Amino acid sequence: MLDRATEFFKSGATRPLAERIEVLRRLHHWILTNDAEICDALYADLHKAPFETWATEIGVVVDELKYNVRHLPEWIKPERVRTNIKVAPARGYKYPEPYGTALIMAPWNYPFMLTIDPLIAAIAAGNCAILKPSNYSPHTSDVISKMVSEVFEPGHVSTVLGGRVENAALLNQRFDIIFFTGSQTVGQVVLQAAAKFLTPVILELGGKSPCIVDNTADIRLAAKRIMWGKILNAGQTCVAPDYVMAHEDIADELVSHMVYWVKKFADDALNNPDYPHIINDANYNRIMGLIDDSKVVVGGKGDPATRAIEPTIMTGVTWNDAVMSMEIFGPVLPILTWSDPAEVIREVGEHPHPLSTYIFSRDPRAQRYFRTHIQFGGGCINDVVVQVGTELPFGGLGHSGMSSYHGKAGFDAFTHYKSVLHRSEVDIPLRYPPYDRFKLEVMRRL
User: Fold this and answer.
1) Tens of pLDDT along 292-336?
2) Is 238 a catalytic residue?
3) Which among 86, 105, 122, 322 is placed 20 to 30 Å from 285, CA to CA?
4) Known catalytic residue: 204?
């Protein structure tokens, strides 16, 4: 399969602008024509309602497709770079070139969007691709495989289905670039495998993303938006607010509003047909093991038969609690309190850089203070999660990932910018030996 992709790339078929745009339009048409099948697959895998599937998976992909088609003619143009007087007369250019064949390894939590979004960027940049969707979301993986076979020519894009054996086999091949979304543990495995071939890697990982609420925030709105972001996909979102750090003056009021929105958004969650379920038994048991019943103010129950877990809020939490020992990746939200902003900076800074950080405050100075002093991949002020659905670059920092994509950043991630200097035939003798004091003085001045 990799040999076929390599030959297809070498044929030059992926490079013309018209071909790239035509393929992206075919992909767009297929998705809109088969959206019901995509929705059914995601409901079978994660119990996602069609509205949530459109809001967080199909709609995001459609927006990305339209944005790439609209801007691609501009992106593929060589970029002029000013050069210095030492090489004058000359002109410098950066030529955007595809890497070749990309391996895209996707997770199960947003299995359609997190497979197709990087694929769009890879195709727009002129690459071939081999997709490896998650084995934990088999219905969506089957739909993706069908879509690829109907949209792309053999060799341009292919799909590999399976689990760990197939993952290991793929990582033993020499790709030109690897794009991986998933856990930090598997990200390390991918990075080690890529190192054997010196293959560039884009890692989109996770982490414990804090949500900071100060005493100037609109508390009711903050509670509403935070709980929406936490309930989304039952918390199985890499950019979900993982924990809340609330100013002690407003913590009780914030929790009270949060409880209200839990009941409003996910009443009778265990029997709610629109509420997502946990992907498998292992994750269900792990999340339930993080819940301390003595600290639960709402929720806390689960149904092992359906793997549904109620949205759960815990108060009186410290960093010594089990729920703070790992990324939760489920509908459990611990609340910590603070009185001094420096305390927030210190506690967040003592842990690996989060993928996202959310700041709720009406005070521009507080917004700037937290934004400046906390290192994180990306985030929002006075909202959560929605930054992912924009053309802003999306990516992590340190333990939460490397490189970014979405919009132009996605095109750049799958592009090698070839630097070329165009020299004039005018030849200045200064650089040639023999050298003397006059030439040295000229060089110093230059």
Assistant:
1) 999 999 999 999 999 999 999 999 999 999 999 999 999 999 999
2) yes
3) 105
4) yes
